[in-house]
Amino acid sequence: MLTGFSRFCYRRRRFVLLGWVALIIGLFALSNVAGGAFKTEFNLPGSDTEAATQILNRHGFESRTGNDGQIVFHAEQGINDPTVRAGVESLLAKIGNTVPGATIVSPYAPEGARQIAPDGNLAYAVIHFSDRPQEDYTKAGDKIKDIGGGVHVQGLQIEYGGDMFAAFSMPASEAIGLIAAVIILIIAFGSLLAMGLPVITALFGVGCGVALVSLTTRVLAVPNFTTSTAAMLGIGVGIDYALLIVTRYRQSLREGLAPEDAVIMAMNTAGRSVIFAGITVVVAVLGMFTLQLDLVRSVATGAALAVFMTMLASVTLLPALLGFTGRNIDKLGLPHARKNETANGQSFWHRWSRLVQRYPWYAAIGSTAVLIVLTLPLFSMRLGFGDAGNRPTGDTSRRAYDLLAQGFGPGFNGPLILAAENPGGPIAMDVMRNVSARLNETPGVSFASPPQPSDDGEAALIVVIPDSAPQDKATSDLVHHLRDDVIPQALQGNPTVAKLGGVTAASEDFASYVGGRMPLFFAAVLALSFILLMVVFRSILVPLKAVIVNMLSIGAAFGAIVAVFQWGWGASLIGVGKAGPIESWVPMMLFAIVFGLSMDYEVFLLSRIREEYDRSGDNASAVAEGLAATARVITAAAAIMVCVFASFVLGDDRSLKLFGFGLAFAVFVDATLVRLVLVPATMELLGRANWWLPAWLDRWLPSVSLEGRDTGAAPVHLEKRSA
């Protein structure tokens, strides 16, 4: 079927190319007309934070259901200086009149008396917002900063606290990745024409994927960073897939095949690997659906669409483009010399493989030891969310954070909201005052406000200020202590229902939710990948080894992000303000993408090794030939990936820095230490056992051909050989 399909794409290349041009134009036109708005919705069904939000909404506290912002004022002449006070009150009045849904508590109002620091030089106003998409917070923050820019009072410093005010700009990762890809492909191919085909193919696939992501906003709440994530992933895998096919096509031409036959050979070998690898990445990314979070589902859907479209472009558009180039693929070559790719025995990678195979125990033990050492920091990983304290000091939200911490204590940057209601009628305010008193007596609590009743008299809220910063472990422990011990004991025997919420508590809930479900997600992806590899390679040990070594590379990446972002090793070199917890969403997203990409490289390498093994029956020779044939492609593909992912470190947002760094580090380790050292060493040590499959299981498994193998290729049955 793939042979006939490849021949069709080659012979009807003009129609295929026109079809793709029409598809990408049509999808973009449709997305402009029918696409919805991007929005970020953060919901945790069943959590205490969600329950607290519902209580607040039911009883008229809508302005306390969203994120709070602070406007921080510092004046050496004193906050109560008449000129300073006039400027501050004028600013707050303008904000109240022009920013919809904002409720302001002024430090000069009676209820804001505690918002002036003891030294009298520092004060802050609180801006309460009703719950809304993240993009609306950012718009409100930009408007408030514009208004504040018009206030000019001598000696008055104004800073803005909260995520809505943080400076944020998406790095030009797509452009940087494409520039890096062009340079690397030119070095790898030595031909401008050969370089251009993978880039063109990837751009078509990514363009269609991004347009489809825009269309999904009609049915899903899609965060605005989904497009960048999809483009980043699509560019990486799209160039990878096309690179593998083009490399195999050029090799076939050098072996004497006609262009049409070379296309068919490339698609029947490398093309099969691309289809399987693409399916594996899509499965790994969609595995995030097991977390049952709308935010995660949306991002997973966008990433899966981008990967699928780039895979589709690689197996349809690329054969057509190869039909246009024919034997001219190496035209427009560059001066630097390249060795014949078919002369594997003389290549560096063939000699490297033989070196590893000569000392397999040293290579296996040494590479495993390095990976284990890199993984060790993983065991101290603490999930959570960074805050403004992790941002560079040039950011206004970081300066506001520091001023509040100095003047009022670090906990003022992350207040907790206790929402209580009486399901049977009016709430007992004397009970709530007792709760407030118990909270003020609790170690770790800096201050708990008097209870504020709702207009209907059936609910009340209490603001709780911790002693510690929002991202500190002490704050996480305090949230659990208040929920599990202090609040239940204070309400014992009373029908009042109280839930602890707020942004800080929501971060802890999200970390707990994700942490509790990640093992299921990991197990589902690992099990399905093992089964797919077992079916394709007709082996037990090859997929088992693949799963283990991929977990080692992912573990090393997790260890690296803990060392840099949680422990602070070298964090200042990449613009991170200070150490903090690992963003709760990063491990699951990192696992899904890195595992999928790792399986790409595994399939590319093992499928070629299996092809050589089926041809020669010699495991050692098959490992050497397979590595020699794919190492340059894997190295070039990994280099492109590393450049694309590392470009995210150049941005302002800590979470994207963390994500990009983790991806780049994982791909680098996987494509070098794992794929070029550990895998060939273990395959040499296992010998024929690599391809062992019990006879009874072989009869039950479906036959799937990969890399040009006959579907009837017999697995090795060690029990028969030993007999």
Classify the helix fraction into a percent range: 55-70%
Subunit arrangement of the protein: single chain
Taking the sheet with the most strands, its summary is: 5 strands, antiparallel
Based on Cα principal axes, name the global outline: elongated
**Strand percentage, roughly?**
5-15%
For the terminal residues, how far apart are their CA atoms?
A: 39 Å
Structural class: alpha+beta
The unreliable regions are: 336-345, 708-715, 717-723
Number of continuous helical runs: 22
Write down the overall mean pLDDT.
83
The tally of strands reads 11
Q: Over the alpha carbons, how many angstroms does the gyration radius reach?
A: 30 Å
Topology:
Elements: H1 2-11, H2 13-34, H3 48-58, E1 69-75, H4 82-98, E2 102-105, E3 122-129, H5 134-148, E4 156-161, H6 173-189, H7 192-216, H8 226-254, H9 259-286, H10 294-325, H11 348-358, H12 360-375, E5 383-384, H13 396-408, E6 416-421, H14 429-440, E7 445-448, E8 452-453, E9 459-466, H15 473-490, E10 497-501, H16 503-537, H17 541-566, E11 582-583, H18 586-616, H19 619-646, H20 654-686, H21 695-700, H22 718-722
Parallel strand pairs: 5-11
Antiparallel strand pairs: 1-3, 1-4, 2-3, 6-9, 6-10, 7-9, 8-9
